[in-house]
Amino acid sequence: TMNFLTKTLSLSPVRLTPRCALLLRVTAHAAALPTDESQVLTFSSDSEFTLSTAHNGWDGALYFSTDLKSWATWDGTQISSSNGKLYLCGTGNTKITGDVDYNDYKWSLSGSQGIACNGNIENLLDYEAVARGEHPYMADGCYSYMFSDCTSLTSAPSLPATTLAGWCYSKMFYSCTGLTSAPSLPATTLADFCYSGMFWGCTGLTSAPSLPATTLVRGSYSQMFSDCTGLTSAPSLPATTLAEECYNWMFSGCTSLIISDKRQTITPTSGGSLPSEILVNCPMVGTNLCYHIQEVPSLPPPKPTRYTTSPLLPRQHPSPLSKLRLPPSSPRPTQPTAA
């Protein structure tokens, strides 16, 4: 009987619970986890800090270390730095937050001084794939809201992906007021709303990164720099193929940005008309709160809308546009009076 049971058990497939499977993966990777900063995402500060998230949004495994020697699995609960350092990497992930509509999965950084984030963000998805020279696959909403409201964040990680997913960077750095420079954005294959609201409220930004894509999709740059009140220069816009909402409110609230004068002119490099949605204080063309706009580029003819009644428009603000002198209109013909 014992021999029969032994043979039966040895031939029976073993089904592991998700937790057990994760523990086996951790054990298998324990000896191979990174020992240098090139394969990790590094958080650093002159003082100690903590990192946490209310909800675990990744679909693989994340690991953390304070010395690149001892590693442990991170489940999202609060972890602390040591000597001002905290290292993270991951395996088998296609998303880190994966939250398209809400910020329930955002990360929280807390410290008395500024916290820098350096390294390749893709090391969180799969550091082994990055080491092989690959770009790990990204699911929709991959990093959406990730650092939202992290006011202590002073530098952003590199974002080397060239092919994006829907909403992947949406509101990633929303209201990161301590951020003073933006990472390079080399992607040329975009997806719906991939950069939507990415730097919204980053008041410390003074310049924008290059945007090399020539074919845009729906909502590509929608609200990308909204309320970046410190922004004084804008990127060139080489796109020749546009899409619905691609530039919608892109520079809304950029009160320091001069849209058109001797110092800065925003025009499409293709030589076509500038889409009306990119302008930022005439409510009729989506230009909200850019008080320094001095002239309006040529606009394409309006497209029919789905509205059967007039849509609600933003509250109007004083603008130099109101001071433009328009040519006198021709007098209306009067109706002949009845005899």
Any overview of this molecule?
With 339 residues, this protein is low in regular secondary structure. The longest helix is centred in the N-terminal third of the chain and has 13 residues, at 18-30. The strands form 2 sheets. It has a 6-stranded mixed sheet. The chain is 9% helix and 11% strand. It is built from 3 helices and 9 strands. α3 links the parallel β8 (115-118) and β9. It is globular, with a radius of gyration of 26 Å. The chain has helices at 2-11, 18-30, 123-131, and strands at 41-45, 49-53, 61-65, 72-73, 79-80, 85-91, 107-111, 115-118, 153-155.
Q: Helix- and strand-based class? A: little secondary structure
The portion of residues assigned to helices is under 10%
Rg, rounded, reads 26 Å
Distance between the termini: 121 Å
What's the order of the H and E elements?
HHEEEEEEEEHE
How much strand? 5-15%
**Helical run tally:** 3
Biggest β-sheet description: 6 strands, mixed
- The total of beta strands comes to 9
Mean of residue pLDDT values: 78
Name the features.
single chain, 339 residues, little secondary structure
